[in-house]
């Protein structure tokens, strides 16, 4: 069988620990035998980040602007323990943070749904994709622990010296105050990333804030979304038959719980932090959660939502058997290959991505899975495979589908 051609490269960012081991195995077993894999390779493994003073992360991000599509392996975000383990020159920043800052993107997290791994919310039948605004609010706050009686004020001094002032509270005793902010530019980018991704996925977009209580701060989010929607997206949404739906955050939460899923839920920073953990847990497994960074300009970077699975890696180094789930990492690859195929009008590549995803899902639904899923599945007598047997089981099916 002739290998599938790729006219344009995509950006490949390698990573760390167990996911780096899976990365190679996925390429060797599931990609290179079938595709003339055309990637521009960047090694974001911690050793090479350290060697290049993290320049490689910046280079990989800029390459993503050039080629528009990237796939990334999970990477270590250094902490004190990693400083000694890897003998680091500096405690390098989180690669995901660096990439996001350069691409100005929003992260969308989507669960992979298979029969036999049932959501804890029984009416959820389709994925709920969460988009979290990743700038400002309580994550860039300033706080004061008020020691005793006094007056707290909110003051803005314009560049021209003009002053706006509000009293926050006249304290009679001790208490607390907090200052938070956001900027219109970031909210606008967030809104465009969400609208673009809804068009890309042909799914409804939900957004919610507490604008009835926060008549300026939260209302500003609501107004910016509505304004951009009306001016730039209304016609495109109508053409695809999808909807932009705004409601209050508490109403949104109630509706999400009663829904069957199948939409994108845009959240303010804190709501997204909290709700993404709830939704991920309710869908069953972190190992079945993918993540894509979408920039307002339409650059896409795909990855698994989980980390480098350090505990499994140490077992692997000792020569012990591991049963690490590679599905989210494989779906990062299929996401990137499908997007590459769509941008290049390469229908063969799009079709390959569909078949590889089907092979993953069918393997699990046939009862062959890694340990993390075997523990929670409703399928009787699942066959527990090790990390590499699982990838081979997917390959067996993929080969069969490609022959037909
Ligand atoms: P983790 O790698 O997500 O793993 C936490 C635990 O979740 C694992 O020990 C394992 O549980 C389970 N798990 C996660 N993915 C799995 C998979 N594919 N198959 C089976 N089980 C899986 O999180 P962590 O251990 O807290 O972080 C390790 C490193 O990853 C850190 O250095 C962190 O900086 C980095 N990280 C990177 C990213 C990223 O690049 N996007 C995201 C998060 C964390 P059991 O041990 O119980 O089997
Ligand atoms: Mg969280």
TrEMBL record:
<feature type="binding site">
    <location>
        <position position="250"/>
    </location>
    <ligand>
        <name>Mn(2+)</name>
    </ligand>
</feature>
<feature type="binding site">
    <location>
        <begin position="307"/>
        <end position="312"/>
    </location>
    <ligand>
        <name>NADP(+)</name>
    </ligand>
</feature>
<dbReference type="GO" id="GO:0004450">
    <property type="term" value="F:isocitrate dehydrogenase (NADP+) activity"/>
</dbReference>
<keyword id="KW-0560">Oxidoreductase</keyword>
<feature type="binding site">
    <location>
        <position position="77"/>
    </location>
    <ligand>
        <name>D-threo-isocitrate</name>
    </ligand>
</feature>
<feature type="binding site">
    <location>
        <position position="273"/>
    </location>
    <ligand>
        <name>Mn(2+)</name>
    </ligand>
</feature>
<feature type="site" description="Critical for catalysis">
    <location>
        <position position="210"/>
    </location>
</feature>
<dbReference type="InterPro" id="IPR019818">
    <property type="entry name" value="IsoCit/isopropylmalate_DH_CS"/>
</dbReference>
<keyword id="KW-0479">Metal-binding</keyword>
<dbReference type="GO" id="GO:0006099">
    <property type="term" value="P:tricarboxylic acid cycle"/>
</dbReference>
<dbReference type="InterPro" id="IPR004790">
    <property type="entry name" value="Isocitrate_DH_NADP"/>
</dbReference>
<feature type="binding site">
    <location>
        <position position="132"/>
    </location>
    <ligand>
        <name>D-threo-isocitrate</name>
    </ligand>
</feature>
<feature type="binding site">
    <location>
        <position position="109"/>
    </location>
    <ligand>
        <name>D-threo-isocitrate</name>
    </ligand>
</feature>
<feature type="domain" description="Isopropylmalate dehydrogenase-like">
    <location>
        <begin position="9"/>
        <end position="394"/>
    </location>
</feature>
<dbReference type="GO" id="GO:0006102">
    <property type="term" value="P:isocitrate metabolic process"/>
</dbReference>
<feature type="site" description="Critical for catalysis">
    <location>
        <position position="139"/>
    </location>
</feature>
<dbReference type="GO" id="GO:0051287">
    <property type="term" value="F:NAD binding"/>
</dbReference>
<keyword id="KW-0464">Manganese</keyword>
<feature type="binding site">
    <location>
        <position position="325"/>
    </location>
    <ligand>
        <name>NADP(+)</name>
    </ligand>
</feature>
<keyword id="KW-0521">NADP</keyword>
<keyword id="KW-0816">Tricarboxylic acid cycle</keyword>
<dbReference type="GO" id="GO:0000287">
    <property type="term" value="F:magnesium ion binding"/>
</dbReference>
<feature type="binding site">
    <location>
        <begin position="75"/>
        <end position="77"/>
    </location>
    <ligand>
        <name>NADP(+)</name>
    </ligand>
</feature>
<keyword id="KW-0460">Magnesium</keyword>
<feature type="binding site">
    <location>
        <position position="258"/>
    </location>
    <ligand>
        <name>NADP(+)</name>
    </ligand>
</feature>
<feature type="binding site">
    <location>
        <position position="82"/>
    </location>
    <ligand>
        <name>NADP(+)</name>
    </ligand>
</feature>
<dbReference type="Pfam" id="PF00180">
    <property type="entry name" value="Iso_dh"/>
</dbReference>
<protein>
    <recommendedName>
        <fullName>Isocitrate dehydrogenase [NADP]</fullName>
        <ecNumber>1.1.1.42</ecNumber>
    </recommendedName>
</protein>
<feature type="binding site">
    <location>
        <begin position="94"/>
        <end position="100"/>
    </location>
    <ligand>
        <name>D-threo-isocitrate</name>
    </ligand>
</feature>
<comment type="similarity">
    <text>Belongs to the isocitrate and isopropylmalate dehydrogenases family.</text>
</comment>
<dbReference type="InterPro" id="IPR024084">
    <property type="entry name" value="IsoPropMal-DH-like_dom"/>
</dbReference>
